[in-house]
């Protein structure tokens, strides 16, 4: 349980999330994930990182129960900073990051895969941002890297999900395979990337990040400010406690 790193083949590091039952990461988990990805990318022997998960799904976002147990804003601040660090670690990783996604990839999971360099997904994978049902705002920055602008807005406002096949049609998922073939497919792509010269692949990663049209760190940080506003105003708790149901949206507390 937690975050682990393995080296199944030369030049490739696999960072695995394992937080049962649904890979909803606590504050400490996001920081541990960030540290593991950074360490893997800094290893001179590594030329590609595969980000994967154990269990039922890739990532269910933050641990909502941890937020609900908190009597102040410490958990919210911690998880926002932790998510920021983990997303940035994937984006800033010195070598390319391949996300291997199965099952559900929602909330914070979108932040991870949206900042990855390539995505391989199983045919049962679904992607979405149910933030408006969880009393939060954020990661639209990363969803916008996966789908066109108007689709991103519709998915965000409705909390709907899309399939791996949908994202493959949009060009953001490299390959869709049966679940039992996911690890092998991700490692095959990683092996192809890792066959490049280590110094040159690092320069390539820095160059591609340098020409990105959107500063993902600043953009995501801007979004997080609205999450704090929703929490300070009491809206977040009201929505989070009902997961966006019971017709509470937009109503004042009685």
TrEMBL record:
> GO molecular function terms here?
lyase activity
User: Where exactly are the transmembrane stretches of this chain?
Assistant: none
What single Pfam family name could you report for this chain, choosing any that match? ECH_1
Residues in coiled coil: none
CDD domains under this entry?
A: crotonase-like
User: Which controlled-vocabulary keywords does the entry list?
Assistant: Lipid metabolism, Lyase
Biological process terms from the Gene Ontology for this record are: fatty acid beta-oxidation
SUPFAM superfamilies the record matches: ClpP/crotonase (SSF52096)
Q: Does the keyword Membrane apply?
A: no
Give the family per the record: Belongs to the enoyl-CoA hydratase/isomerase family.
Name of the protein described by the UniProt record: Enoyl-CoA hydratase family protein
Q: Which organism is it from?
A: Streptomyces tuirus
């Amino acid at each position: 349980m937690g975050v682990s790193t393995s080296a199944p083949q030369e030049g490739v590091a696999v960072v695995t999330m394992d937080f049962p039952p649904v890979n909803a990461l606590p504050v400490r988990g996001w920081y541990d994930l960030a540290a593991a990805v950074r360490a893997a990318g800094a290893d001179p022997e590594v030329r590609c990182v595969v980000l994967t998960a154990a269990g039922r799904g890739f990532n269910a976002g933050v641990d909502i129960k941890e937020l609900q147990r908190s009597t102040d804003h410490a958990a919210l601040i911690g998880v926002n900073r932790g998510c920021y660090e983990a997303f940035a670690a994937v984006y800033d990783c010195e070598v390319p990051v391949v996300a291997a996604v199965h099952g559900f990839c929602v909330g914070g999971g979108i932040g991870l895969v949206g900042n990855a360099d390539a995505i391989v997904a199983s045919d049962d994978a679904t992607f979405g941002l149910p933030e408006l049902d969880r009393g939060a705002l954020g990661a639209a920055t990363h969803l916008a890297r996966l789908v066109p602008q108007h689709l991103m807005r519709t998915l965000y406002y409705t909390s709907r999900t899309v399939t791996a096949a949908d994202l493959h049609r949009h060009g953001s998922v490299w390959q869709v395979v049966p679940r039992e073939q996911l690890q092998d497919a991700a490692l095959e792509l990683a092996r192809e990337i890792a066959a490049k010269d280590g110094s040159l692949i690092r320069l390539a990663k820095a160059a591609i990040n340098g020409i990105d049209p959107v500063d993902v760190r600043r953009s995501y940080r801007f979004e997080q400010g609205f999450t704090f506003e929703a929490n300070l105003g009491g809206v977040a708790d009201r929505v989070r406690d009902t997961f966006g149901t019971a017709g509470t949206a937009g109503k004042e507390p009685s």
